Amino acid sequence: MDISPRIQTLDALRGFALLHMMAFHFCFDYFVLFGSWGDWHTRPLTLAWQQAICCSFILLAGYCHRLSRHPGKKGLILSLAGLAITVLTAWAIPSQTVIFGILNLLGASSLLAWPWGKPVTSPPGAAPLPADDPEGKSTPGRLWAGTGLAASLGLFLLFHQILWYKLDLAWPLDRLRRQAALLPDFLTIPLGFPPPGFSSGDYFPLLPWFFLYTAGLCLHHLRPPAGQGSLKPNQAPDSPSEEAVGSLKRPFYLYCVQTLARMGRHSLLIYLLHQPFLAAAAWLLRCLPA
């Protein structure tokens, strides 16, 4: 089956983020897990790198939500994969047990955003979308998507600042925590209100990260229609047009894009299998004589 340049571009972007993720995990294994640089992952530049990788994955997942034929099935698979990561890390590295990591977040977000995987319809009380514009590419549909994008980004930044204690909203935060304390841990941890003493090697709660997912979903709705400044959907990746590659028509560029796209199409499998190999490589490098 041919894959359009637009889909190949998304796969290549996902592969590029995957490459950065593997580089980050290798550095973590080398400097922290098998080294003596215990605060490497808490330094500002390292945190910025880690956040950029995670944000790119979540935004891309939200953007591709409506491209999935079965978002509910995808959400269940990602959630089960996240649960497997929790079990494996608890067995192999108890101090770095992953509880509600990024796979759990993407799975839960896909399930929560399941209704938005259907064709766009007008909000209640609004004028219906025209028959020749089923995806709402007209001005009203794009206006609603733009409003959703702005709201999602605003809520993401707000809750990110609140939950990381960078915004002085102590009273509502304390009230939220008191209300969350009445709920069991298996509900408060995914929401972003973990109990005292909680630790996780990789923690991405729904607040604030679900709003970044919905931002990607709205961004997908704002994309240019096919044929209007975007890549045409009926072109195969092995024979892209000048529009697909612009002025960069060198074979090496195409090879890199296609390699990244192949990685992106198998991102879940790579994510599940890459860490043991990187950890082994980092350990071997540490064992080499100086």
Description:
The chain has eleven helices and no strands. The protein is globular. With 290 residues, it is mostly helical. The protein has helices at 5-33, 44-63, 71-92, 102-112, 139-163, 170-180, 185-191, 206-221, 242-245, 251-265, 267-287.
Helix content: 55-70%
Assign an overall shape: globular
- Helical element count? 11
Mean pLDDT: 80
Largest sheet: none
Poorly predicted spans: 119-134, 227-248
SSE topology string: HHHHHHHHHHH
**SSE class:** mainly alpha
> What integer value in Å does the Rg equal?
21 Å
- What distance lies between the first and last C-alpha atoms, to the nearest angstrom? 50 Å
The overall strand count is 0
Beta content comes to: under 5%
Gist?
The protein is an all-alpha fold and 290 residues long.
Give structural attributes:
290 residues, mainly alpha, globular
Question: Secondary-structure map with pairings?
Answer:
Layout: H1 5-33, H2 44-63, H3 71-92, H4 102-112, H5 139-163, H6 170-180, H7 185-191, H8 206-221, H9 242-245, H10 251-265, H11 267-287
